[in-house]
Amino acid sequence: MANITATEVKKLRDQTGAGMMECKSALTEANGDFEEANLILRKRGLASAAKKAGRAMDQGLIGHRVSPDHRSGILVEVTCESDFVARTPDFQQLVEDAITEIERAGEAANEAWLKDPDGPIQKRVAAGIAKLGENMSVRRFVRFTGQTPTSYVGQYVHIPDGGKTGVQVEFSGIDSQLAGRDELVKLVKEIAMQIAAASPSYVARAAVPAEILDRERSIYRAQMEGQGKPPQVIDKIVEGKLGSFYSQVVLPDQAYIRDPKMTVADVLAAAAKSLGAPVAITRFARLKVGEAV
């Protein structure tokens, strides 16, 4: 049987994040073979994760990273059981490591890749569970890469709620000269904060699925039944109610959170005038820890 030294135990602990006693036990079982000991710890970590899988994970953080040129960005939701663990350096490192793995995977990063038990994300999660003793999950992520040469990706994470709400938004019409201007930086932050606070569902009216609009219209018409109003009057009322629906779920139609007398479309128009160029929002994503998907 190999004589396991404290230095070897520490080396394995640094590699895996597992506890000292677990590392010593694994090295002893592996007769000092580090690769085999790593495999043993991985198996134990996965077993540990399986035992904890039924426990609720409604705490955690939204991780975020945007490229220096703002052409791409990543948001990731990483959950755990307690706010205490979410605040630890080890958990925060797990969040950063998850972003790095998504970045490395690029286009290969999808739902199947995320959930693959032999993939890089699940291996890191298993090691975190083994070290911190709580169930954890990299629940979902959003990755944007610029759709056009003038795409600009911005992000916002809401610090007052402990970093549990994050937004990623992509603009078009932003060339290299506009990208560095203070007015643009302010606009991106304001729009991202709007999305965080008002939680719109669509980037434009045209993006609302036809079946959703049909459902809303049928509801509004049902509300008019038995009132004896002429069809043309009902049509006008229905379209008016539909406008109210748009103002709730379509980002440009929403009332601006800083000045409800303005819409987000008004804010964009004012920004375009200030910047001297038309700008548009092409897509956005909003993640909140524990939110139903």
Question: How would you explain this protein's 3D organization?
Answer:
- With 293 residues, the chain is of the alpha+beta class.
- The chain has four domains: 6-52, Orthogonal Bundle (Helicase, Ruva Protein, domain 3), CATH 1.10.8.10; 55-145, Elongation factor Ts, dimerisation domain (Tetrahydropterin Synthase, Chain A, 2-Layer Sandwich), CATH 3.30.479; 146-208 and 250-293, Elongation factor Ts, dimerisation domain (Tetrahydropterin Synthase, Chain A), CATH 3.30.479; 209-249, Orthogonal Bundle (GTP Cyclohydrolase I, Chain A, domain 1), CATH 1.10.286.
- It contains twelve helices and eight strands.
- It has a three-stranded antiparallel beta sheet.
- A hairpin with a 7-residue loop joins strand 4 and strand 5.
- Helix 1 crosses helix 2 and helix 3 crosses helix 7.
- The longest helix is centred in the first third of the chain and has 19 residues, at 34-52.
- The model has no long low-confidence stretch (mean pLDDT 89).
